[in-house]
């Protein structure tokens, strides 16, 4: 790392979403020094712009949180590649390689939801915890999972937004997932709410039946995560969670779904167990900073 201490290094952070690329430079303590966004154009156009931005900002390392599915296992030949995506030009694209070949700095690479989880676990409401689930409910549903301080990869990375749920008999469903009739994303993502009730979710705030059903599906999914991952805290984000009335409904339904089978102090205080995200929509970009820091430190 030369003469710079970890406190002084300039860490590049790239939150690569399906519609926009957020670029930032931060310090290891999570301070964001500068930030700029650009549209997610085809790779041939946007990659040179991204590389130019980071090299002109003199970064010592980079952390990338990419839209998935994408290769996150360093031992896989597809590490750093974008996998199945309808986004023009991105399918099968070597995202990580195209950035490292231009920048030549240590670079960490993970999914957008895993970096959001990392941001909260490093700088936010899950600091000091080592098993954490971060769930985003927006246009799609995705979960980032940290186990013993490491983001979970395995074969690919978790796709916990597509677990199958029990659909309420009166709910016609109309899944928005092209793969599954009854998966969590298909039944409960923002576009699913809109398809079912005929209006954008934000315009349904005063319809209790909408949030009753929505919280039912969210609670089913969270109960499964509790049982499978044994998280110490679950963090909820994404546009749909702006409906704050969902939180308490979800908390009480998770308690009901678990039906007393697990007893742990965490589950006795649902208000601190299931929480909204805490970094004012900066959890992703701050997680990229930590990812870059880890890459530089060789962690
Ligand atoms: P994305 O998932 O595309 O990154 P968001 O997390 O903002 O973006 O999610 C967008 C989805 O969230 C849309 O389906 C939208 O209907 C829904 N949404 C956005 N704001 C609200 C709100 N205040 N209340 C309910 N749903 C919302
Ligand atoms: Zn699905």
Q: How would you characterize this protein structure?
A:
It is a single chain. Helix content is 36%, strand content 19%. It has two domains: 11-111, Nucleotidyltransferase, domain 5 (2-Layer Sandwich); 125-276, ATPase, nucleotide binding domain (Nucleotidyltransferase, domain 5, 2-Layer Sandwich). By secondary structure, it is α/β, with parallel strands linked by helices. It has ten helices and ten strands. The protein has helices spanning 43-56, 95-103, 112-123, 184-188, 190-197, 208-229, 245-258, 265-268, 270-273, 283-297, and strands at 11-16, 20-26, 32-39, 61-66, 107-111, 131-137, 141-147, 150-151, 233-237, 274-276. The strands form two sheets. It has a five-stranded mixed β-sheet with strand order 3-2-1-4-5. It has a five-stranded mixed β-sheet with strand order 8-7-6-9-10, with helices on both faces. The mean pLDDT is 96.
- Unreliable parts: none
Mean pLDDT: 96
Q: What's the oligomerization state?
A: single chain
Integer tally of domains: 2
Which CATH class of the largest domain applies here?
A: Alpha Beta
CATH level-3 fold name of the largest domain: Nucleotidyltransferase, domain 5
Span between N and C termini?
A: 14 Å
Biggest sheet, in brief?
A: 5 strands, mixed
* Shape label: globular
Strand order of the largest sheet: 3-2-1-4-5
| Topology pattern, helix = H, strand = E | EEEHEHEHEEEHHHEHHHEH
- The CATH homologous superfamily of the largest domain is named ATPase, nucleotide binding domain
* Tally of DSSP β-strands: 10
The hetero compounds bound to this protein are: adenosine-5'-diphosphate, zinc ion
Continuous helix count: 10
- Which CATH-level-2 architecture of the largest domain? 2-Layer Sandwich
Secondary-structure-derived class: alpha/beta
Percent of residues in β-strands = 15-25%
Radius of gyration: 19 Å
């Amino acid at each position: 790392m030369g003469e710079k201490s970890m406190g002084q290094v300039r860490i590049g952070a790239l939150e690569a979403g399906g519609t926009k690329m957020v670029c930032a430079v931060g310090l290891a303590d999570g301070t964001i020094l500068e930030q700029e966004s650009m549209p997610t154009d085809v790779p041939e156009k946007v990659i040179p712009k991204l590389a130019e931005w980071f090299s002109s900002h003199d970064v010592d390392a980079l952390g990338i949180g990419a839209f998935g599915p994408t290769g996150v296992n360093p031992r896989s030949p597809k590490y750093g590649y974008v996998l199945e995506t309808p986004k023009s030009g991105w399918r099968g694209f070597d995202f990580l390689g195209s950035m490292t070949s231009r920048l030549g700095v240590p670079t960490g690479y993970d999914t957008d939801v895993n970096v959001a989880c990392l941001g909260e676990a490093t700088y936010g409401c899950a600091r000091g915890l080592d098993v954490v689930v971060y769930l985003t409910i927006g246009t799609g549903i995705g979960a980032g999972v940290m186990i013993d301080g490491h983001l979970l990869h395995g074969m690919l990375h978790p796709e916990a937004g597509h677990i199958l749920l029990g659909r309420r008999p009166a709910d016609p469903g109309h899944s928005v997932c092209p793969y599954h009739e009854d998966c969590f994303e298909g039944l409960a993502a923002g576009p699913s709410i809109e398809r079912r009730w005929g209006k954008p979710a934000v315009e349904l705030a005063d319809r209790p039946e909408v949030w009753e059903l929505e919280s039912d599906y969210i609670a089913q999914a969270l109960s499964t995560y509790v049982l499978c991952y044994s998280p110490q805290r679950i963090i909820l984000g994404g546009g749909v969670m702006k409906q704050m009335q969902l939180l308490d409904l979800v908390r009480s339904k998770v308690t009901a779904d678990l039906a007393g089978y697990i007893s742990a102090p965490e589950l006795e205080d649902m208000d601190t167990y299931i929480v909204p995200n805490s970094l004012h929509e900066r959890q992703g970009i701050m997680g990229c900073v930590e990812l870059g820091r880890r890459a530089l430190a060789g962690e």
